[in-house]
Amino acid sequence: MCTTVSGTQRDGDDAALLRAHVAGDRDAFAELVRRHRDRLWAVALRTLGDREEAADAVQDALLSAYRGADRFRGDSAVTTWLHRIVVNACLDRARRRQARPTVPMPDTESATFVARAAGTPDLDTAMTVRAALAQLPTEQRVALVLLDMQGYSVAEIAQILGVAEGTVKSRAARGRARLALLLGHLRRDGGNLVAAPDVRSTNGTTAGTSTGGGGDA
User: Fold this and answer.
1) Which of 57, 82, 105 is the last residue of a domain?
2) Domain-located, residue 111
3) Total-model pTM
4) What are the contacts of 28-34 at 24+ separation with CB within 8 A?
5) Taking phi first (over 0 means left), then psi (-120 to 50 degrees means alpha), and beta for anything else, what does residue 49 get?
6) Which segments of the chain does DSSP mark as H helices, in order?
7) Which end of the chain is more exposed for a tag (fewer CB within 10 A), N or C?
8) Is the dihedral of CA 73, 78, 83, 85 positive or negative?
9) What single DSSP character describes residue 105?
C-alpha cells in the first residue's frame, strides 16, 4: 500500500522524502532530485568535462539511489549520500575512459565556468584552463571541483569521497600545484600568473598547508 507525502512533509527534510520514497510514495524521490539536481549535475560536468558523459553518470547514479534507497542508514546527510553516488559514478566513467581514451568535443559552458572560477578573461584562456584541469588525476580534480568550485567543506568532501580530511587537503593542494605548473605560461594584469583557484580548508588556511591524514595523489 502506497503512502503519500503531505505538503508539510514535502517541505521537510531530505530524509523524510527518502523514507517516503521507500514507503511507496511515487513523487517523493522526484522531489528529492528536484532539490539537488543542479549541484549534482554541476559536480558531474566539472569532474568529467563532457556533457554526455556527465548526463549518463548522473542518470546511472540516480537510478542506483532510487533502487538502493532502502539501504540508506542515515549516517550522513542525504545530499552527501547522493553526491557520493554521483562522484563514484563519475570516477567509474573516468577510469573506463582512461582505458579507452577519446577526444571529447569542447564544452564552452564548462570552460566558461572554469574561467570564472580561475579569474580568466576570455574563452580561449578558459579552454586552456579546462584542458589543464582535465590533465589532473581524477581524484585531485574531484577534490578541487567539490572544494573550490562547489563550495563544500573539507569535512563534507571527506564524507562524500569516503577518505580522511587530510587526504582531501592533500589532493586539493597537489591538484592546485599541478594546475599552477600547467598554467604557468598564462599571464595577465601586468604579468601575474593565472593560477588555479585558491583552495582553502574550512578554517580559512590554504589547503596545501595541511596534508595530515593522507598523502595520496
Assistant:
1) 105
2) no
3) 0.69
4) 29/65, 29/66, 29/69, 31/5, 32/78, 32/82, 33/62
5) left
6) 7-10, 14-23, 28-48, 51-68, 78-99, 108-118, 123-135, 138-144, 154-161, 165-182
7) N
8) positive
9) P
